[in-house]
């Protein structure tokens, strides 16, 4: 602003000089005016801020500025650490709030659906501290089966605990409560890990510990927010984005006879574009992912490997910039989770040399565990169209195929 | 998750800083108007900046408290009569699931079915 007023002043003087025809005096005029900066560079408002003999404010500001400079020179890093810790503290406070709300919601839902005789609070608090120790991987041979066993034991233990906490809940409600408690457990764990690193950083005042925490915190917060909305969806039994694959299979098997093929998985034999399709999904509407790998293995064995093609449909992590509900296809086993089910399918298809195709519905972590959004619901029909095209192009009439809808089937029947 | 927020206590140091800034700004303005009117503009600059800074700090505290709420988006259930095509859109109720047999159709008295459950997300991008 000061420069602007200065240049406008010069322009004004030039204009007068030119209009008077006195051009030989133009340059000295500009230089002279340029030197008389004190009348133009410091407007009236700021006059009092310049330290002069009788100007107290000017001196105070000058000393404050020097003090500020010295403090930042010696304590700059420490101040930065405190500022970062304060920011982390804000996120930690929010994480604690989310965790507490999740815990309260879980307890309230157990009381409402399970009608327990005793207060389930203590049991819920114990559940939130639950740990599952993964198998030792020094000798990785056979680790998949060890991991599967640990996961099975964990699932059974969870189910039993929920049944004890909520004796009046039906099968669907037990599954939903199990999912609710798992989301509460995840929130508790996230909060505790962030608190651990925050306290460690505060104790050691190590910039690098705090830096690391601050760098990942936005992603951690996103995940925590996602689990918070998942918890809400689970308490009500609402379908979630992760169930997109299960919804595709549910639409295909609608009106056909279903049978149980593996733990928590149902299959229906459906005529599909002149082919015989074994359509499978986790058994709904309770929150459940089942064992689709085991189911595919069973169907292959029942048919002695006479399956022409397998199509697996699942929700997949979208990249930033991609639209939620975009459908993509490729090859491979599109089954998420700890990897046990994916491993089983890979083993089986290798044995019988069966081609496998994947159709995925893109969504981010927030959408995957939040109540199903409209775009993803609508993408289900687009995915079915893709499967139809794929089957027509890759198989012949009369062939046997498997269509597996993967994902948590909460809020989705069949 | 509840729509309510936990009331949070503002830290006493933070409050003290705001009060001191406000007090100093008031003194600066008073000084400018009554004691040293020659430097009125300078004192006004300091006073107004002080008031703006305190207002900003207070606003920040309020903003942080507001961040503690978890917004839930409404989820809708669509019930469709397979026979006559009658459609009913209502808010999700506990126990609803996709492909669940619902109440009778008010037009043709046939059993209706829940055909969709979804939320309409607010786009952040």
Molecular shape of chain A: elongated
Low-confidence stretches of chain B: 1-7
Beta-strand segment tally of chain A: 7
Estimate the global geometry of chain B from the Cα principal axes. rod-shaped
CATH topology of the largest domain in chain A: Rossmann fold
CATH-defined superfamily of the largest domain in chain A: Peptidyl-tRNA hydrolase
The whole-angstrom Rg of chain B is 29 Å
CATH architecture of the largest domain in chain A: 3-Layer(aba) Sandwich
Overall pLDDT of chain A: 87
The CA-CA distance between the termini of chain A, in Å, is: 70 Å
Q: What would CATH call the class of the largest domain in chain A?
A: Alpha Beta
Largest sheet of chain A: 7 strands, mixed
Mean pLDDT score of chain B, rounded? 81
Q: Give the helix/strand class of chain A.
A: alpha/beta
Radius of gyration of chain A: 33 Å
Query: Please, what is the oligomeric state?
Result: heterodimer
Give the count of helical stretches of chain B.
2
What does this structure look like?
By secondary structure, chain A is of the alpha/beta class. Chain A has 3 domains: 2-47, no CATH class; 101-236, no CATH class; 241-405, Rossmann fold. Chain A is 61% helix and 12% strand. Chain A contains 14 helices and 7 strands. Chain A has helices spanning 2-19, 26-35, 37-41, 44-47, 56-114, 121-128, 143-165, 171-204, 207-236, 244-253, 292-302, 340-352, 365-369, 374-394, and strands spanning 258-262, 265-272, 275-282, 309-317, 327-331, 356-363, 400-405. In chain A, strand 1 (258-262) and strand 2 (265-272) form a beta hairpin. Chain A is elongated and about 100 Å long. Residues 1-24 and 34-40 of chain A have low confidence and may be disordered. With 125 residues, chain B is an alpha+beta fold. Chain B folds into 2 domains: 12-66; 75-119, 2-Layer Sandwich (60s Ribosomal Protein L30, Chain: A). Chain B has 2 helices and 4 strands. A 4-stranded antiparallel beta sheet of chain B has the order 2-1-4-3, with no helix packed on it. In chain B, a hairpin with a 6-residue loop joins strand 3 (101-104) and strand 4. In chain B, helix 1 (12-35) packs antiparallel against helix 2. The two termini of chain B are 24 Å apart. Mean pLDDT of chain B is 81; it is low at 1-7. At the A-B interface, helix 4, helix 5, helix 9 and helix 14 of A face helix 2 and strand 4 of B.
